Amino acid sequence: MLNGRRLKVGVTLFLRRGYQSIWENGIFQNCHFLTMLLAHSPLVGSTYLVNGGDGEPAQAQDFLACAAVPVIDLDTAHRTLDVVIELSAQLDPQWAASFRQRGGRVVGMRVANDYVIDIERMMFSLPHGMLVSGTPYDAVWTLPAFVRTCAPYYAAALRAPVTPMPHLWSPVLLERSMAASSAPAFGYVPGRPRWRLAILEPNICMVKTAHLPMLAADLAHRQQPDMIDCLRVYNAMELKADAQFVGFARSLDLVTQGRASFEPRLPVCEILTQQADAVVSHHWENAQNYVYYEALYGGYPLVHNSPLLGGCGYRYADFDCGDAALALREAFASHDARLPAYRDAARSFLATLDPLAPHNVGHYGAAIAGLFP
């Protein structure tokens, strides 16, 4: 509360025409969890999603049914809000300058490894994301996972102070999706003699690709041929059309022996309940991912190289395929026996991400208060 007044805060959301799913990218979940938190902040009187796309809320009711806050347009936001957090939809620089001129505050929240993404786009003539668009910011927020690679980049390019903020996650969206589906209960089922492995990297940027997990799974298979039933690589339909990737895949025993398949993008709740027993993952400076949290929540074995999971899962070192194969084999050997302890550790870690946890509400509230010195 500032001078006895609670703030009106909006988070930008890009609504497009046609169908949208809350699961189609992580940034929609970011919007949901952030508005959850803001709606419970004593500093915030009202919270909104600010539509920065060309779609209408009436056209996206299934998508917006997950949201607990109203949607307003940019004109309404300009007239009524105190703070706008640019997250899913980017703000027009002139809109932001005018909003600040009347006393509003603009926060740019960056939840991806934008340094790598932007460089790739510039180097390889890919569609740009307009990160350095000239929008004036009062502050830039990012996640701990991106401090090393992105914080100096943001500070220099966006000309605003950069603050790392807690990553937020809750099982509410997963539980809602499961309640609306006919899939089996979400949770690891022990006792299978061989594991069905899933690789869930998006394969659209070098920070999260399937290549190293494929090598790790294949190496583990060579070392222990009776362990893997099948390997399913998701988000891989475009990769199947690339001759170099096909050549890479065909070098693997799991592929030549017919144990691997390459699949489209599917909801995680569908994959883990019906098609996989364990997840093998890899990141490069992208250590906080919702898929990690979802796997841990279900008690599924997660083989990963993230230092930001509170010791949960089966961690291997950096880019070490041999260590990743060892972690996978150790998971297969021990997971069923240690499942209760694994679930307890995951539950304790995931509680630290809760948007409604007092420490997270307080952290974000303090950052908002800091916008009004």
Structure description:
With 373 residues, this protein is of the alpha/beta class. It has two domains: 7-170 and 353-369, NAD(P)-binding Rossmann-like Domain (Rossmann fold, 3-Layer(aba) Sandwich); 181-351, Glycogen Phosphorylase B (Rossmann fold), CATH 3.40.50. 38% of the residues lie in helices and 15% in strands. The strands form two sheets. A seven-stranded parallel beta sheet has the order 3-2-1-4-5-6-7, with helices on both faces. The chain has a six-stranded parallel beta sheet with strand order 10-9-8-11-12-13, sandwiched between helices. Helix 5 links the parallel strand 5 and strand 6 (139-142). The longest helix has 14 residues, at 321-334. It is globular and about 65 Å long.
Uncertain parts: none
What is the CATH class name of the largest domain?
A: Alpha Beta
Rg from Cα: 22 Å
- What percentage of amino acids are in beta strands? 15-25%
For the record, what is the CATH homologous superfamily label of the largest domain? NAD(P)-binding Rossmann-like Domain
Topology pattern, helix = H, strand = E = EHEHEHEHEHEHEHEHEHHEHEHEEHHH
Overall tally of structural domains: 2
The CATH architecture designation of the largest domain is 3-Layer(aba) Sandwich
Main β-sheet, in a few words?
A: 7 strands, parallel
What is the typical, i.e. mean, pLDDT? Answer: 94
Number of helices: 15
Task: Enumerate the strands of the largest sheet in spatial order, edge to edge or round the barrel.
Answer: 3-2-1-4-5-6-7
Structural class: alpha/beta
